[in-house]
Amino acid sequence: MTDIASSPARLPGWLSALRNILAYLLRSPTSAFGLAVIAVLVLTAALAPWIATHDPFAQNLDNVLQPPGSGHLFGTDELGRDIFSRLVYGARITLRIIFLVSVVVGPIGLIVGATAGYVGGWMDAVLMRVTDIFLAFPSLILSLAFVAALGPSLGNAIIAIALTSWPPIARLARAETMTFRKADYIAAARLQGASPLRIILKSIIPMCLPSVVIRLTLNMATVILTAAGLGFLGLGAQPPEPEWGAMIATGRRYMIDSWWLVACPGVAILCVSLAFNLLGDGLRDALDPRQMNRR
């Protein structure tokens, strides 16, 4: 008789799936790089007071435009503020934008797309025509219009980015819903008296989640670039906030002689955007059933 106490405890299903996905990501050099960069970003934002070497808002007019060196790792800006410390605190702003946009975009896109795909008819036509109107404009241009109407600030920039980022999620959720809305388990739930709302929330949305998570991860690069573009144009985070796009905007006047003012935040935007793209590609492969069968 097998000793139950000596047998290894089984992990819950979701935890085991998460472990398998993480193991798959770490086996791929590109997705492992993206995961590592995002982990560094999160740790930097969480430990910013201990990582930053200077006060990111402290001005020192006797030490302006100093090149990278021992006293200032990435140099100083036109007001003598430490570039490295401002980049570290700027990671918090970047993560705030990513988190808030994801919280807004994910549910809106899922609900709109799943409802349109399952209900169909005039509901599908109305919701998709609204989606098409948003998709007809480039996201940055539409974000500029919303921020111009709401007023320049980081909060309004986040709202504008969220309002322009949900249509691709809705399109994806609708396409996913239409592939299995006539499946047997959906028909069984309908025969048991489940309401359309319950079917959408309990049966359809969970099936759309993997694709939506992948799309959200891939969209984060666009979100970061749009936020940096709004900050560069003065419509996002306002001085003296250390947002990376705003840092590039203030440093462009001195970039000929003081290249580090633009290069350092530019490299930070490049690395984080690339990391989310690589992680999204890895997640797409990890959550692909064909890939899972090969493992």
In a nutshell, what does this entry contain?
This protein is an all-alpha fold. It has a single domain (26-55, 73-294), classed as MetI-like (MetI-like fold), CATH 1.10.3720.
Core attributes:
mainly alpha; disordered N terminus; MetI-like fold; 295 residues; single chain; 0% strand
Structure description:
It is built from twelve helices and no strands. The protein is mainly alpha-helical. The chain has a single domain, classed as MetI-like (MetI-like fold, Orthogonal Bundle). Helix 7 runs antiparallel to helix 9 and helix 9 packs antiparallel against helix 11. The protein is elongated.
Shape: elongated
Question: What would CATH call the class?
Answer: Mainly Alpha
From the helix content, strand content and strand pairing, which structural class follows?
mainly alpha
What Rg do the Cα atoms give? 23 Å
Q: How large is the count of helical segments?
A: 12
Helix coverage percent? over 70%
CATH architecture: Orthogonal Bundle
Distance between the termini: 32 Å
- Average per-residue pLDDT, rounded, comes to 86
Please tell me the total number of domains.
1
Order of helices and strands: HHHHHHHHHHHH
Low-pLDDT runs? 1-8
Oligomer: single chain
| Percent of residues in beta strands | under 5%
**Main β-sheet: number of strands, strand sense, barrel status?**
none
> Looking at this structure, what is the CATH superfamily?
MetI-like
What fold name goes in the CATH topology slot? MetI-like fold
Number of strands: 0
